[in-house]
Amino acid sequence: MAYLGNQPIVGDSTNKFKILDDISSFTLTFDGSSASVVSVANDTLSIGNHRFITGQKVTYSDGGGTVITGLTDGTSYFIIKESQTTIKLATSASDAASSTAIDLTGLGAGASHTLNVKFDGTNTKFKITHNNGVKSTITRPEQLSLSINGVIQNPASDYSIESDSTLALNAAPVATDKAFGSFVEALALFTNVEDNTIDEFTGDGSTTTFNLSKEPPSSRDIMVAVDGVIQYPTTSSGTRAYNASGSQLVFTVAPAFGVLIQARHIGFAAATSSNVTAFYGRTGNVTLTSSDNISVNDFAAAGNVSIGGTLTYEDVTNVDSVGLITARNGISVTGDGFFTGVVTATSYAGDGSALTGIAATANVRTGILDVAGIATFRSNTLVGSGITLSPDGDGFFTGITTIRSASFGSGVLQESFHNDTSSVSGTHNHDALTYGMVWNGSTNASGSFVINLRGDANTTFNSLIGIGKVTTMTIYSANNSTSNYMTSFQIDGSTQTIKYANATTPSAATGSGVDVYSLTIFKTAASTYSVFGNFTNFA
User: Fold this and answer.
1) Residue 76 phi/psi, 5° resolution?
2) pLDDT classification of 442: cutoffs 50, 70, 90
3) Does the 418-538 domain belong in CATH 2.60.120?
């Protein structure tokens, strides 16, 4: 940027160089008769986009109509800003600060009601806008060049910038004061926020050379004022008040004794070997050489980031990816790899001899487990949903086990049975899922009885055996009376016809010892069985 009034020559275009709207007086006109503008229920005025600030003193006028009930024509009130389009009014600055609003009890008449804020010796805060009400986004006083009554104001002492681009003057201007200002919108013009700084010196009547805090690119990139009066820089067309020579400000004539000299840096700083702390919204290119390094804290990219060479993570603790990380040619990890979720791989290379440190609660999932040697399980291991393998060699099967052939070595082939010590009579349910296929009534039966074979109270035997399958059931009944025998055999509550050996169906018990009913059960169709039996007695 050149000195005040000229178009920027570096960085952004004039889109960022703005003229301050007139802040000495602003009037907003609204329809005081409209219920969509005046809310009696909420005591608010919805007046559209405005420039008002909480605590500002304004003057209300009914515009020749009828006042809004609760307000008085020509009276001063204080703003309570609800939003960028809605306000309330208070009777005092303290009420505005505490959000104590005037009670609006009725609509007015007329569409030309007004609120006016102006230089009145009371207001010190004004909204920074341009182009007739477009709100600014500046955040630093150095971005604003402000003149009151022709004297440039010092941003270090005469004014400040508060939140929401609010200009706060240290002294309230009066109605006769004239203000003019221009500002650099946002910080897009500056490579580094420190580029827009101010150097101050005091003249002694003899010194012409002053050391600047940084080197400006040219004389046009500093704005110099002597006691608030802007000085012209030397140009190719003629010698003026000053010029910049390296990092020195050189005056053609020494400033008078005691005058305040202010040099405002308004362009890019010249090349320097010191660190650049930030880039602020530049729309042009930033060119780095092969010897330049960039060190950042957080880095966010709205689009894609393409890296032609190798991306090396020297000191990265974590890589946090919301989606999938796709590596075209594999992932090489020279150190340890830690995975807290499921790792899915189509293949695994290596013998696994170095796999260590897998927690006891961790899951290892694989489609095929191919073990060349011995697989050792240190606790019960669940295979699928129905097979449990124990470390001592036992296998527990809760569902149907199909074996085409089997070879059993030394040891004991075991089967569960129900050792029933009750004195059986009537219908007795035998649950195969609980007790297996052997029932031992070890206490003498107390009457004739029926054995009903089922899975359990909630499971049918039919669901446990497939069509074309065969099984056996053995029933042992201690007996001391010929009347106490098994008169019928049921499966899932349905009586079965038993074909006994030699066509001899028992019609009585033996009366002593243990009677044994050995049954072979063929399932020929759904819930359909052929049952063959033998009846013997053991004394």
Assistant:
1) -90, 140
2) very high
3) yes
